Amino acid sequence: MRDTFNTGKTYDLAYRKKQLSQLILGLEEMKDELCDSLYKDLKREHFVSFLYEISGVSGQAKYDMNNFEAWTKPSARDTPLTLAPAKSRVIYQPLGNVCIMGAWNFPITTLFMPLISAISAGNVALLKPSEMSPNCSASCRKLVETYLDNECFKVVEGGAEISIACSQKKWDKICFTGSSEKGKLVAQAAAKNLVPCLLELGGKCVTIVDESADASFAGGKVIAGRLINSGQV
After folding, report:
1. pTM score
2. Pair 210, 190 in one domain
3. What's the CATH code of the domain at 14?
4. Are 165 and 216 part of one and the same domain?
5. Same-domain check for residues 155 and 118
6. Which of 36, 42, 108, 178 sees the fewest Cβ atoms within 10 Å?
7. Cβ-Cβ contacts under 8 Å for 194 (sequence gap 6 or more)
8. How many alpha carbons lie under 13 Å from residue 90 in its C-beta half-sphere?
9. pLDDT digit string (tens) for 13-68?
10. Residues 133 and 233 reside in one and the same domain
11. Is residue 124 predicted with pLDDT exceeding 90?
């Protein structure tokens, strides 16, 4: 994948747009299979899975596809008088080889949302789905292998030993979603190779209800939020 990146293949904006359109196509054509996999792994109803994961990921891909060309345009900067008559600008470049490790509770979103950003920015990416949602892992691998360029985008499945091995490689960036405990291990391993990390870690969903609230209405909203994703939010 690094050799492929070094050819400059992903720098082409038309190539990036093609990959995003293929991802959107894959989500559309495999939506029933993905919803089935989400039900098998999480016992989540199909409509909720489509609403909270598939449609959101597809919408983000469409948004990026319509806007990333503007994001990649050089941006002018002020130049110090001492360097006149020079002009300064920022030219945006892809980082290179990205490792994306998803979580079990939102296995589609946490895997493909970072992938959309990676594609838009012109990177190649290795995806590691969570082994705790095996049906979704297999479906995500099928989608990537069927619809995307496998010279630039790959999925590797397996247990914790695969995640550990991935975190020890010299990437240009690691994107990890999961618990704070595992996030610390990923960051520690990445630090040995000076690899920057983007960590989205679990936390508490705090609700504050003060004396101005309608207790019945607030209670309904709290319960609705608590039961999203089979009570795992």
Report:
1. 0.90
2. no
3. 3.40.605.10
4. no
5. yes
6. 36
7. none
8. 7
9. 999 999 999 999 999 999 999 999 999 999 988 998 999 899 999 999 999 999 99
10. no
11. yes
